[in-house]
Amino acid sequence: MEHLLNKNVLDIEISGIRKFFNMVNDIEDLISFTIGQPDFPTPEHVKKAGISAIKNDFTSYTHNAGYLELRKAASQFLSIKYGLNYRPENEVIATVGASEAIDITLRTILSEGDEVLLPGPIYPGYEPLIRICGGTPVHIDTRDSDFKLTAEKIKPFLNKRTKCIILPYPSNPTGVSLNQEELKDIATILKGENIFIIADEIYSELVYTDKHYSIANELRDQTIVINGLSKSHSMTGWRVGFLFAPEYLCKHILKVHQYNVSCISSISQKAAYEALTAGINDAETMKNEYFERREYVSARLIKMGLQFVKPDGAFYFFVKVPNHLQTTSFDFALNLAKKGKVAVVPGSAFSTYGEGYFRLSYACSKEVLQIGLDRIENYLNAKN
What is the 3-state secondary structure of the chain? Predict the structure, then answer.
């Protein structure tokens, strides 16, 4: 009876990142640079807050949007860090990770036939959700602009079917971000248009050069800001995300969220409150370590003669597969895993514009990075 299922669901596939990870995970003695999972533990004081919530029986339903003190803390966090102001009573929703925030936003704003503009290459989690909603993802090639989606690139794709544009910066898989001037240019062409902007800023606390800037500072009324604690506080398994949007929009997104999950885990909410208040600067230690790793990996890749755009955020390098190998990104990654004992993600997992590249995550210790990069270097030398 499979043919009776929703065609939009039948037509999508499991994430290429996970698919490849599952394919090579059983290879013995494999060094994995695949998953975007911080290798730091959740801060101890945050874990204690979660334990305390259990011991004190904070284990019931909360307000659908999250208990008010948490929403106040999330609002204050955004105000202090990025100069954004959202009313905690009706413009903030705590979600099951940033993933649910993206899902409920798209399900609220999209109708059949709507187009969503995306930079390519891009994290593979958006396109399937767009298609499930009956929308059409439209990728814009950013390979010749250092993987940045610019105003000039956006203009030719705007039409009456354009409902939304997604700005996922700092970027997964490239690690690049957009600065204030670049975002102002984009805001200029979108201001007043009937187009929503989803600003996925989950890596906002991991920016190494300029301070993170949000397009919501320019176009608050059109923008849905998505953030969370997975990357900033190494809380991936706690599943805590946040959605910030003007009231007229937030009240409708909240309906979708309510019928989807009722509310996020009450225990995770207490831990999240601790992270956003006492742990407001917890990301600094991790960011400093990531910065050192970035510098190390960059030097090693340059020594190997590999081409890349140096990331200014997140914890990824998006590296060009050497031309002389004359292979697809998938075959390169598979052979590297089998023969070189290092797993990276083929660029094809990040749209057709990722073909010819591979993603390397440096969210692992320096010792592991050294071993893995030594193996990549030996593999490439053997191919020369």
Answer: CHHHCCHHHHCCCCCHHHHHHHHHCCCCCCEECCCCCCCCCCCHHHHHHHHHHHHCCCCCCCCCCCCHHHHHHHHHHHHHHHCCCCCCCCCEEEECHHHHHHHHHHHHHCCCCCEEEEEECCCCCCHHHHHHCCCEEEEEECHHHCCCCCHHHHHHHCCCCEEEEEECCCCCCCCCCCCHHHHHHHHHHHCCCCCEEEEECCCCCCECCCCCCCHHHCCHHHEEEEEECCCCCCCHHHCCEEEECCHHHHHHHHHHHHHHHCCCCHHHHHHHHHHHCCCCCCHHHHHHHHHHHHHHHHHHHHHCCCCECCCCECCEEEEECCHHHCCCHHHHHHHHHHHHCEECEEHHHHCHHHCCEEEEECCCCHHHHHHHHHHHHHHHHHHC
pLDDT tens for residues 348-373? 999 999 999 999 999 999 999 999 99
Q: What is the pLDDT of residues 96-125, one digit of tens each?
A: 999 999 999 999 999 999 999 999 999 999
- Asked if residues 61 and 368 have their Cβ atoms less than 8 Å apart, the reply is no
Determine the Cα angle at 117 with ends 257 and 355, to 5°. Answer: 110
Torsion angle in degrees (nearest 10) through CA of 340, 345, 348, 353: -110
Q: Does the bond joining 121 to the residue before it have cis omega, within 30 degrees of 0?
A: yes
Mean pLDDT of 247-267: 98
Looking only at the bridges linking them, the beta strands covering 345-346 and 357-361 are antiparallel
Rounded to whole angstroms, how far apart are CA atoms 335 and 327? 10
Cα separation of 339 and 31, whole Å?
Answer: 12
pTM across the whole model: 0.95
- Backbone angles phi and psi of 181, in degrees to 5: -65, -40
Count of other CB atoms within 10 angstroms of residue 40:
15
Instruction: List, in order, residues 6 or more apart from 261 with CB less than 8 Å away.
Output: 95, 96, 100
CA angle 226, 229, 233 (to 5 degrees): 150
